[in-house]
Amino acid sequence: MADDDLIRFGWEEWVALPDLGLPALKAKVDTGARTSALHASDIETFGPASKPRVRFTVHPIPGRDDVVIPCSAVILDRRTVTSSNGESESRYVIASTLRVADHSWRIELTLTNRATMQSRMLLGREALKDHITIIATDRFCQPELSYDVYHSPKMRSVAPNRALRIAVLSREDNYSTRRLREEGEGRGHTVEVIDTTRCYMAINALSPEVHYDGKRLPRYDAVIPRIGASVTPYGTAVVRQFETIGTFCVNGSEGIAASRDKLYAHQLMARHRIGMPNTAFASSPKDTDSLIKLVGTAPLIVKLLESTQGKGVVMAETKKAAQSVIDAFRGLKANFLVQDFVKEAAGEDIRCLVVGNKVVASMKRTGADGDFRSNLHRGGSAVRVRITKTERETALKAARAFNLNLAGVDLLRSESGPKVLEVNSSPGLEGIETVSRKNVAGLLYDEIERRVRPTPVRKRRTATSPSAR
User: Fold this and answer.
1) Where is each ATP-grasp domain found (predicted)?
2) How far is CA 437 from CA 364, 365, 378, 424, in A?
């Protein structure tokens, strides 16, 4: 082999591991070691036994524990490695592409804690190709890289789509839960369905935890809450605990709680100047006539604050009927709203499905014969619909008001523009996917993968920062 064909390595070189989202690392070359090693912490296995994976975090810059890159890989083996001082350690073995300048090839790596080492990576002789020559007296024979890349906006574009561990908080084995599991596993993620009511929490300042059936739950990359209305207080407490730990939750506890409290939800929408039917709320039985006047004339809608799927929603055709319904609800000491009935909607509403910052699907729902409620659970029907720019903007504005990354926004088409009826923080996927013929679950995973990929970390303003060279 001609000398010109040789790749010259010094005893230390800049390398990249693009499969793991590590564009710049200093690696020590050690021909005395057979196996290469990568500094890793928070090492945790996940996935099926037939194809287990490992996830871990890497601090690529020595002395900068604030720069953290989460990684995951398929486990190839578990190997006992003996260090130069005679200590043995069982390590997971993974594979990754090694890139040096214009050259790249696959190597095997073991995962271990090298926090005390200046080089975050060790290159053993198995990783060195036949046409590499080692110049033991030199450093950085290949082009030098820079740690600045970890602070660059381009960091997101170089981050790989790593396998994630995701929890779906759900008590039901319904279409939505099954789709979320199937879609996630189809992308190589591990998706675990967790019964919200079987979770319990260790609440303390130093190490808050979520436990499930007697065991501490592992660290999840993301949580998809599917909190049933009947367990909203406890469900939001569980979500809040995951938020405390630092887990990305598709919908936060505050947004879920606000969407379930119909009175607060309408106050929140009013604060954000979102169009909705005229709405009134009162407690005293003496205020019935005044309450009706605030909303308008009959027909009126009387709605329990805790109503879901159209239950507890009554239309009063006349003022007398409205008085009777209101008095009946008050006799039960139930909290309720009174709303104007939007006649021109003709028993139809529009469900806009918002994922992230985009309306990804929409459908028009029509109530069953003789029923003004358009809920599909009550026998209503749905068809695909094209929404207007104003309707799209209204749906997005409503989802943002509740700070929800997944929301079903129900609105009516009125003569004065779209009126939002409700913002659902756990929208069903079956109807909208069937009608729109869109993979809504897939679009949600696109958003999750985008949100939990490594993000650039700002440099700390210090008198002296670690050198990039």
Assistant:
1) 266-449
2) 14, 15, 22, 21
Long-range contacts for 228-237 (Cβ within 8 Å, ≥24 apart)? 228/171, 228/172, 228/196, 228/426, 229/260, 229/306, 229/308, 231/171, 231/196, 231/197, 232/256, 232/257, 232/260, 234/196, 234/197, 235/169, 235/196, 237/201
Question: Angle 460-464-469 (CA atoms, 0-180°, nearest 5)?
Answer: 95
% the chain with pLDDT above 90? 44
Q: Which amino acid is at 373?
A: R
Classify residue 11 by its DSSP letter.
Answer: S
pTM of the complete model beyond 0.85: no
The predicted structure's pLDDT at residue 178 = 96
Q: Would you call 375 helix, strand, or coil by DSSP?
A: coil
**Type of residue found at 263:** L
Our CA angle for 447, 223, 58, nearest 5°, is 80
Average pLDDT of the residues in 15-23: 92
Which helix (H) or strand (E) element contains residue 224? strand 222-225
Cis peptide before 299 (omega within 30 of 0): yes
What is the rounded CA–CA span in Å between residue 200 and residue 216?
A: 9
Cα angle 70, 26, 75; round to 5:
40
Contact 347/366 with Cβ under 8 angstroms?
Answer: yes
Summarize pLDDT for 229-275 with one digit per residue, the tens: 889 999 999 999 999 988 999 999 999 999 998 889 999 999 999 99
Backbone conformation region of residue 114, classed left if phi is above 0, alpha if psi is from -120 to 50, else beta:
alpha
How crowded is residue 3: how many other Cβ atoms within 10 Å of its Cβ? Answer: 7
> What burial class does residue 343 get, using C-beta atoms within 10 Å of its C-beta: 0-12 exposed, 13-18 middle, 19+ buried?
exposed
3-state class (DSSP) for residue 456: coil
Q: What are phi and psi of 5, to 5 degrees?
A: -85, -10
